[in-house]
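During the no-cost extension, the postdoctoral fellow (Dr. R.K.) reprocessed legacy sequence entries with the updated structure-token encoder. One reprocessed record is reproduced below for audit purposes.
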Amino acid sequence: MKIFRNGLAIGLILQLAVGPVFFFIANLTLQRTITDGFMGVLAVTTVDYFYIALSIFGVGKLLENNKIKKAFGIISSTVLVIFGSIIIKGVTGTSAAVVSGATPTNLFTSFTSVFFLTIFSPMTIVFFTSLFTAKAIEYNYTKRDLLIFGLGTGLATFLFMGISVILFSLVKGAVPILLIQILNLIVGCLLIGYGAVRIIKIFKMRKIDNVLAMKVTKNV
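Re-encoded structure tokens follow.
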């Protein structure tokens, strides 16, 4: 139980660093229903547990291969930019009546949108791989210990996001339309900005690698 509590405590602390997915789920709750919000929570928890499992069983080491890492980085970052563009387009092309809460509920769409947004987050697998490697070294955890630690870490996502959804649903009626629109714009801009910055960094690193490779070839 101590290992589980340790994973839960660290997971809750890490959840405080809210990102685009948090705001995306907040939007689902404010614009649709609390059920849509919880479908988003279920999606992000599912992805977290998926990546936790990959990290524990060492699949995350595949990203140590530069070609795979770059390809995954470009694809995932592009997906984030597309998601952000769709959100901003929805804000600029949606009437106030829809934004105020008349958006029809669609539980499948709520789940899949958050699922794909989370699974294509370029830092998720790297983050969990680093975390579990560090804990294995720090506490000399076995694979079984890491599984228990991972269960606690994943549960933290569900608890934090779930409580957030409940709180957002309680204040839903008091949230002005303009604030919801601003929140949408913030989420869209965060996704586009984050994805664009990562794409630029990847191509910069590729350019540097090519220059270094040319220098090595000349020296040989």
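The chain has nine helices and no strands. The mean pLDDT is 76. The remaining legacy entries will be reprocessed before the final report is submitted.
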